[in-house]
Design a protein that fits this description.
4-stranded mixed beta sheet; 10 strands; binds protoporphyrin IX containing FE; 18 helices; two-stranded antiparallel ribbon; 504 residues; alpha+beta; Cytochrome_P450_fung; Cytochrome p450
Length: 504
């Protein structure tokens, strides 16, 4: 009896100590107040409405009895994900559709936390640690030069050129196919696999994510279209993972494999068990799902910013011209001499985080934070965009102001916690393992683009801009600017010659 009373009181105390949020309806929860989780802007509005963003930065809500928490403060994210990191590193069951049905739960990004995940991260780190990434410098510079060449040849379709050179670089790192890679069949498949990932990897995007019982519907059932779709996507994913692996394995057997992530692991671990093969396949896929669109989205966002802020572009170009001249393109070795270009990149990551709601995590156990009860199994959604526009950390937070990242500038609040946060790459145990490579790839691409091209909004005959200065993004886990018009004009007639010399 005493035990029952105790349990009832404990339950009541926990229930009344949940973080603030909209009142849930019976069974349905907050289905009518909570926006589509892929719509990050709407999530930010929710945070403001119920969590008053910066004063009570946690909002609690439920969907069909499944609890979720939206965090919009750097302080809370650091406390939970870094100081209590072990409790908030899981992703199991976050997406039934993407994880279990399509099969992404075998990949690093959606895998449950545990020894297998730790092993996969260690494998990735053999290629993605800062020392190895530095060795990839020539490849990254070549990848940037190939993008410039595409822009030079076909500036009108610039938007289409953002991803291929990054895919090529990552295919090269993973599987070591020689440039040009058009004939490597897995590039197109990797692109497709990513597209699937972006559609299914956001928690609660499909009805089956919050009503897992639906996964038991047979494929032929009239409303089970998602199951038929999942089967098709799973087939494509398996072909990508194991198909590319088999090609490299065969090259290793014949003794013709060049150095790559996959070939070096095959050689180091042969004879391979099935577990080893799975580990190599699925970590290699992590390069594409993690690396291609994030990097391409960052460079596309940068082009959008340059077309909207000509003064910033002029200053970045002047810095490059003064530091290295005009008879060569910048390299990664030039980065220390280009603080303003670096600041432009950091400011872009701040104002337009590429993964604005992070990749959701799940609490493994019950926890308490600042008097709030956080139940086990709760889904954590990270409001990165709200965090990076926190007026307590960033002065004039809605203005694109790269100089705030220059140590000598008065608006540089470097001593404020969170100011130089790497939150664009996530937090805690699941922080992006490709962050060193990703940041260098973005830097070299934006530095060479500014060195080589003038980017401007198209103008009419009166010299006025013909597009409106709106920042518009496609919803999804990784957000891309919506296609927009802009003119990309070479700064010098010698650009083609310069590119020839950069061994494209
Ligand atoms: C500008 C470039 C990039 C950005 C903005 C970015 C961002 C992110 C973010 C926000 C996460 C989720 C972290 C979390 O849950 O806290 C993540 C995870 C991940 N990223 Fe990146 N990333 C980038 C480049 C790359 C590259 C180049 C690779 C691989 C070569 C990569 C591989 C991964 C993988 C495998 C994960 C899953 C990690 C896990 O769940 O344990 N990323 N990334």
């Amino acid at each position: 009896m005493l035990h029952t009373v105790f349990r009832w009181r404990q339950h009541r105390q926990r229930r009344t100590s949940l973080p603030p949020g909209p009142r849930p309806l019976f069974v349905l929860g907050n289905i009518f107040q909570v926006p589509d989780p892929r719509n990050w802007m709407a999530c930010q509005i929710l945070a403001k409405a119920f969590g008053t963003s910066f004063t009570r930065p946690i909002v609690y809500y439920e969907l069909f009895g499944k609890p979720a928490i939206l965090i919009s403060s750097h302080e809370v994210a650091t406390e939970l994900l870094e100081h209590h990191g072990d409790n908030y590193a899981d992703r199991s069951n976050n997406t039934v559709m993407g994880g279990e049905l399509v099969g992404w739960d075998r990949s690093v990004g959606l895998q449950a936390v545990g020894p297998r995940h730790t092993r996969y991260r260690k494998l990735l780190n053999t290629m993605l640690n800062p020392t190895e990434v530095r060795k990839l410098q020539p490849l990254q510079e070549r990848c940037a030069a190939r993008l410039l060449l595409r822009l030079l040849k076909d500036p009108e379709h610039w938007y289409m050129h953002m991803r291929p050179s990054i895919s090529e670089a990552l295919v090269h790192i993973c599987y070591s196919q020689d440039f040009p890679l058009e004939e490597f069949p897995y590039i197109a498949m990797a692109e497709r696999a990513w597209w699937i990932f972006n559609n299914v990897a956001t928690a609660n995007s499909f009805a089956v994510d919050y009503l897992p019982i639906l996964k038991h519907l047979p494929e032929w059932f009239p409303s089970a279209g998602f199951k038929r779709q999942a089967l098709l996507w799973r087939g494509e994913l398996d072909e990508l993972g194991y198909g590319s692996f088999k090609i490299v394995k065969e090259h290793v057997r014949k003794g013709i494999a060049k150095h790559s992530y996959v070939s070096s692991l095959i050689k180091a671990r042969s004879p391979l068990s099935q577990d080893d093969e799975d580990a190599i396949c699925w970590t290699a896929i992590g390069f594409f799902t993690g690396g291609v669109d994030t990097t391409a989205a960052a460079v596309t966002t940068f082009i959008m910013i340059m077309s909207r802020y000509p003064d910033v572009q002029c200053r970045a170009y002047d810095e490059i011209r003064d530091a290295i001249g005009t008879d060569r393109l910048p390299t990664l070795d030039d980065r220390p001499r280009l603080p303003y270009v670096t600041a432009c990149m950091l400011e872009m990551f701040r104002m337009f985080p590429i993964v604005p709601l992070g990749v959701s995590k799940r609490a493994s156990n019950n926890d308490w934070y600042d008097g709030h009860f956080i139940p086990a199994e709760v889904l954590l959604i990270l409001g990165h965009r709200a965090m990076s526009r926190d007026p307590n950390i960033y002065e004039d937070e809605d203005t694109f102001k790269p100089e705030r990242f220059l140590a000598c500038h008065p608006s540089c609040n470097a001593d404020k916690p969170g100011f130089r946060s790497t939150r664009v790459f996530g937090h805690g145990r699941r922080i992006c393992p490709g962050r060193h490579l990703g940041e260098l790839m973005v830097f070299i691409q934006i530095a060479t683009i500014v060195a080589a091209f003038c980017i401007s909004a198209p103008r009419n005959s009166d010299g006025k801009n013909t597009v409106d200065y709106k920042f518009d993004f496609v919803d999804g886990l990784i957000v891309f600017p919506k296609p927009f018009e802009c003119a990309i004009t070479p700064r010098s007639k010698n650009l083609a010659v310069l590119l020839e010399h950069s061994d494209v």
